[in-house]
Amino acid sequence: MSHTPRILMVSSEVESLARTGGLGDVVEALSLAVARGGAHVIVVTPLYGVSRVPKERTRWPRAVPVRHGWGADDVRHPGVVELETTHFPSGGTRRICLIDDPGLYARSGIYGDPWGTFGDNALRFAVLSRGALEIAGRAWDGGPDVIHAHDWHASLAVIYARTVMGERWARTPSVFTIHNLSFQGVLGEHMVDQLHVPRSLLTPSVLWHEGQVNLMKGATALADRVTTVSPTYAREILTPEGGFGLDEHLRAHSAKLVGIVNGIDTERFDPAKDGCLGFRFDAGTASHGRAACKKALRAELGLADGDGPLFATVSRLTWQKGIDLVLPLFADLVSRGAKVVVVGQGETWLEDQLVSAQARFPGDVAVRIAFDPALSRRVYAAADFFLVPSRFEPCGLTQLYAMRYGAIPIVTDVGGLHDTVQPASADGGAGTGFVAPRAEVGAMRAACVAACEVFGDREVMAKIRSRGMQADVSWNAPAREYRALYETLRRHA
Ligand code: GLC
Questions:
Q1: CATH 3.40.50.2000: which residues of the chain?
Q2: Above 70 in pLDDT, residue 2?
Q3: How far is the CA of 345 from the centre of ligand 1 (A)?
Q4: Is the distance from the beta carbon of residue 229 to the nearest atom of ligand 1 less than 6 Å?
Q5: Which of 202, 182, 256, 252 is nearest to 224 (CA)?
Q6: Does the CB atom of residue 97 touch ligand 1 within 6 A?
Q7: Cα torsion angle, 425, 410, 258, 142, sign
Q8: Phi, then psi, of 8 in degrees rounded to 5
Q9: Mean pLDDT across the stretch 382-403?
């Protein structure tokens, strides 16, 4: 009988503990889905000052030595805080281990604070990466079957295992997932000596990139498989437009690159059970339930009454997300009787423009500069249309949450948005949303105008909406793909 596979996941974010975006959602839900399917999964993540750690937890009796440099003293001794194990009928389990190193993590942010990005992030995430391997080596006799590292923060887990931890680790297969290629972990050359990375890796085929050390490049070079979070994004990152300077390198490794579209946790994101909503509904009761949610949201955000459509978005406010491509449309939408809601935080230039838009259209535009998961759910449940005007989007999760809650997405035709939203036909007979062919103001305007026209036809609206609500956006299919990938790697190991 083959033994239950042991998967080590390494991530800077886990949704229930600390998150800034989709990465945390994915690691939380994917780890559960993989364990549910019959695997032992350990997720290792830092214990930040901002982590919401549940009361049920234990502390490992001994600290774990974590080497993070070549010097005799370059060893830290963090504690390990472990949460209650989740058990599944399949025999699978999911454990979460937090690395407790207050000197590195006990701060008021994950990557930075209001004063900026932390200057020692390379060290902080080196300790995460190395610490994860040390923890897995102690939790499992013989270590994990597969290492699955997420985004640049965990790239050193792949690199250390392959190069400085001995035979057994060097043979342990690894998967590296790119959630967002625009963050690569770029460091000065001197950092390799401080981070226990062999100088021999400083070649253009591994870590060296445009005169600097590039951790994402190194991890994608050394991992056995590279995945990214949608098939279309997997193609886009091989092009100069989408490759953020790494397209040539990734093309050289394209044989081991695969795109697996993200899912969402359909148990925890379920409008029929969501405690954040004043009114709950399913696909059958959506029209009444959503009308009540819309009314409640208008009151909550100080919007005037009206019969027009509600356009909304929940987003990090960055260039990637293209909110500036819809800002110029607010006046037009409002003149058509629409209301607009924006919830999110990020770069000041966008926050400022949004706040002044709210001042210009009192009662018609509501902006909340906040990262507010509960309010976000009320927005998914209330909006008629959900805007995702991204310039690039590896997968995007908000369009999936929106569909699940019955808000019809209006998206650009990029990355995972292309893979998860099908253009609706005028009679509502097919499709789940509105798709702007390019990330441009004009294309978004046309998509929003088309949406306003459809809004007048309740039947067409209901058809498009209910197709979205019933689409399978769960982790079932994607988790199966990851499990198959782990299994292939394990067999070849
Ligand atoms: C990043 C990407 C987003 C993706 C998420 C989870 O936040 O920007 O598109 O959905 O990671 O994979």
A1: 6-263+476-492, 286-470
A2: no
A3: 16
A4: yes
A5: 256
A6: no
A7: negative
A8: -100, 120
A9: 98
pLDDT at 21: 87
Percentage of residues of the chain with pLDDT beyond 70: 100
CB 314 within 8 A of CB 416: no
pLDDT above 90: residue 315: yes
Query: What are the pLDDT digits (tens) for 397-454?
Result: 999 999 999 999 999 999 999 999 999 998 999 999 999 999 999 999 999 999 999 9
CA-based nearest residue to 331, from 311, 351, 301, 302 = 311
Per-residue pLDDT, averaged over 168-178, amounts to 98
Instruction: Calculate how far, in angstroms, residue 178's C-alpha sits from the geometric centre of ligand 1.
Output: 9
Structural contact between residues 173 and 256, judged by C-beta atoms closer than 8 angstroms: no
- Tell the residue nearest (CA) to atom 10 of ligand 1: 396
**Ligand 1 geometric centre to CA of 22 (Å):** 5
pLDDT at 1: 41
CB of 45 sitting under 6 A from ligand 1: no
Q: Which residue's alpha carbon is at the smallest distance from atom 7 of ligand 1?
A: 22
CA–CA dist 354, 367 (Å, integer): 7
Q: What contacts 415, CB < 8 A, 6 or more positions away?
A: 230, 232, 233, 236, 390, 392, 393, 394, 395, 396
Give the CA diameter of the chain.
72
| pLDDT value at 35 more than 70 | yes
pLDDT of residue 462: 97
Average pLDDT of the segment spanning 311-336: 97
Ligand 1 center from residue 337 Cα (angstroms): 33
24 ligand 1 Cβ < 6 A: no
Alpha-carbon distance 474 to 152, whole Å? 26
User: Are residues 15 and 28 in contact, defined by beta-carbon separation less than 8 angstroms?
Assistant: yes
Question: Which H/E stretch holds residue 477?
Answer: helix 476-492
Does ligand 1 come within 6 angstroms of the Cβ of 183? no
Residues 6 or more apart from 466 whose CB is under 8 A from it?
283, 286, 406
The pTM (predicted TM-score) of the whole model is 0.95
- Give residue-wise pLDDT tens across range 459-483: 999 999 999 999 999 999 999 999 9
CATH topology of domain 6-263+476-492: Rossmann fold (3.40.50)
Topology, domain 286-470: Rossmann fold (3.40.50)
